[in-house]
Amino acid sequence: MADTRGAEPPDTTDLDRLRSAAAGCHGCALYQDATQTVFGEGSKRAKVLVVGEQPGDKEDLAGEPFVGPAGKLLDRAFEEAGFDRKALYVTNAVKHFKFKRDERGKRRIHQKPGRTEVVACRPWLLAELRAVRPDLVLLLGATAAQSVLGTKFKLTAHRGEPVEAPEDVADLVPSAVATVHPSAILRAPDRDEAYAAFVQDLKAAHDLLK
């Protein structure tokens, strides 16, 4: 049986040490099928820390966050909203790819991480927050938002709004904005409308830095 006691990051704010330690994480069962841990990347002095749900197929293979179709859309939206991707720190609430195989056993289909997996991986996210100490945390999708703001947070009620973090993470999250995950835009019936709304959310977040 796998040892799945939850993540146990080392007591450090050195992102390189954290990344190296996360590579061997067995905090939940997802490591058994994933290619590798996909840790966060970006500026150690980033004013904005971006949190997504989990790595997808492309990210799992590359070992880098947001390099697939959703990542390309996100890069375009960041540019339109005034963010420089290179100045951000980008990560995920869950660091391993959760998937199922299609009927032919070839294509890997994304599965939403469960609460147990989000909780197991949360210590890595908190360690990243301690290391970067951002001015703003941008949360992409309900899984990311609830991993930081708690399970009672409703994205539909507070999308694009500045929100206060709960007491247990208030010292790490001075300000937060939650919006949809870019993959939701790729699935939207009207992509242009969904994309425009997404960019508006990002612009609202960017305005908080001024």
Automatic annotation (TrEMBL):
<keyword id="KW-0479">Metal-binding</keyword>
<protein>
    <recommendedName>
        <fullName>Type-4 uracil-DNA glycosylase</fullName>
    </recommendedName>
</protein>
<dbReference type="GO" id="GO:0097506">
    <property type="term" value="F:deaminated base DNA N-glycosylase activity"/>
</dbReference>
<dbReference type="InterPro" id="IPR036895">
    <property type="entry name" value="Uracil-DNA_glycosylase-like_sf"/>
</dbReference>
<dbReference type="InterPro" id="IPR005273">
    <property type="entry name" value="Ura-DNA_glyco_family4"/>
</dbReference>
<dbReference type="GO" id="GO:0006281">
    <property type="term" value="P:DNA repair"/>
</dbReference>
<dbReference type="GO" id="GO:0046872">
    <property type="term" value="F:metal ion binding"/>
</dbReference>
<feature type="domain" description="Uracil-DNA glycosylase-like">
    <location>
        <begin position="39"/>
        <end position="203"/>
    </location>
</feature>
<keyword id="KW-0411">Iron-sulfur</keyword>
<dbReference type="Pfam" id="PF03167">
    <property type="entry name" value="UDG"/>
</dbReference>
<keyword id="KW-0408">Iron</keyword>
<keyword id="KW-0004">4Fe-4S</keyword>
<comment type="similarity">
    <text>Belongs to the uracil-DNA glycosylase (UDG) superfamily. Type 4 (UDGa) family.</text>
</comment>
<dbReference type="GO" id="GO:0051539">
    <property type="term" value="F:4 iron, 4 sulfur cluster binding"/>
</dbReference>
<dbReference type="InterPro" id="IPR051536">
    <property type="entry name" value="UDG_Type-4/5"/>
</dbReference>
<dbReference type="InterPro" id="IPR005122">
    <property type="entry name" value="Uracil-DNA_glycosylase-like"/>
</dbReference>
<keyword id="KW-0227">DNA damage</keyword>
<keyword id="KW-0234">DNA repair</keyword>
<keyword id="KW-0378">Hydrolase</keyword>
